[in-house]
């Protein structure tokens, strides 16, 4: 039996358009069941720091292969496939963080991933790390850090810092509502473009979000006169980062985030992602 996929003219046009708009240089949906994914530039996940690769049935990897059944009452359903990356904040503990090294410096970087709001999410009274990326040295000029801050009703606003946590927070924007957003998946896209020189202040910082039920993205942050220049390095552009991280006000109960389909692009991936709900092309079966 021969199976031949027939693309309609419309489907082919859409596929070519998506390919033309997004240049993905790394992607990981954790379907390998570990943290071994890499690319030609040498992308590398750091050690698991209270993170683990999970399926709906249990933990399969955390700094080595694991076979730990999911505790009763937990929900680890992934966004895609069978695996996701879990971030576990144990009650009263401050840290759950996943670092990564991109293997090279990117002058114009787009990071994207699906992230699920914890099913029991309640934000404390202080700030929690959400995402940080930097060229060479963390927490100085060139570092861009996003953090969540309490919104007063158990949810969170998102702020960012041009220069890491050593700089002031700006752009406080409604991000997570409680209880409505508990258990929801969102697709986030963070862009950082390096400044052209140490004194030019023409870098770009952008952050977008789309809930899984939405058809378009909301621009949360945009700054087009960003510093984004690393005075400590001869190489500019983002090369390292971490997802989530230190919670300055620890959660009162065990709280778990999930991420899936982490991607690194050199152009906007948003057109590509929006095609995921389109039907598959027809399949012709020849006997």
Question: What does this protein look like?
Answer:
With 287 residues, the protein is mostly beta strands. It has a domain at 89-277: Jelly Rolls (Sandwich). The protein has two helices and 19 strands. The strands form three sheets. Strands 2, 4, 5, 6, 7, 9, 14, 15, 16 and 18 form a ten-stranded antiparallel β-sheet that branches. The longest helix is centred in the first third of the chain and has 13 residues, at 9-21. Mean pLDDT is 88; it is low at 1-21 and 274-287.
Summarize the topology.
Layout: E1 2-5, H1 9-21, E2 24-28, E3 44-49, E4 51-54, E5 58-61, E6 65-69, E7 84-89, E8 95-106, E9 108-116, E10 128-134, E11 144-150, E12 156-162, E13 170-176, E14 185-193, E15 203-211, E16 218-226, E17 238-246, E18 255-265, H2 270-273, E19 283-286
Antiparallel strand pairs: 1-19, 2-18, 3-8, 4-5, 4-7, 5-6, 7-18, 8-17, 9-14, 9-18, 10-11, 10-17, 11-12, 12-13, 14-15, 15-16
């Amino acid at each position: 039996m021969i199976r031949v996929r027939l693309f309609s003219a419309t489907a082919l046009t859409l596929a070519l358009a998506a390919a033309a708009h997004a240049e993905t240089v790394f992607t990981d949906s954790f379907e390998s069941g570990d943290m071994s994914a890499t690319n030609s530039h040498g992308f590398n996940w750091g050690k698991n720091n209270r993170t683990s690769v999970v399926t709906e049935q249990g933990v399969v990897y955390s700094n080595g292969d694991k076979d730990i059944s999911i505790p009763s009452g937990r929900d680890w359903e992934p966004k895609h496939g069978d695996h996701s990356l879990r971030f576990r904040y144990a009650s009263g503990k401050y840290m759950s963080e996943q670092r990564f090294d991109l293997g090279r410096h990117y002058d114009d970087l787009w990071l994207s991933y699906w992230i699920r709001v914890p099913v029991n999410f309640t934000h404390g009274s202080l700030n929690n790390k959400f995402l940080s990326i930097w060229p060479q040295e963390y927490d100085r000029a060139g570092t861009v850090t996003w953090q969540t801050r309490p919104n007063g009703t158990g949810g969170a606003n998102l702020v960012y810092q041009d220069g890491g946590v050593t700089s002031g927070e700006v752009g406080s924007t409604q991000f997570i509502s409680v209880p409505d957003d508990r258990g929801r998946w969102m697709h986030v896209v963070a862009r950082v473009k390096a400044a052209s020189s140490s004194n030019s202040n023409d870098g770009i910082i952008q952050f977008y979000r789309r809930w899984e039920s939405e058809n378009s993205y909301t621009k949360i942050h945009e700054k087009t006169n960003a510093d984004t220049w690393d005075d400590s390095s001869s190489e500019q552009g983002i090369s390292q980062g971490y997802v989530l991280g230190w919670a300055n006000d620890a959660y009162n109960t065990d709280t778990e985030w999930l991420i899936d389909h982490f991607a690194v692009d050199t152009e906007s991936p948003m057109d590509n992602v929006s095609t995921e709900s389109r039907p598959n092309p027809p399949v012709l079966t020849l006997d």
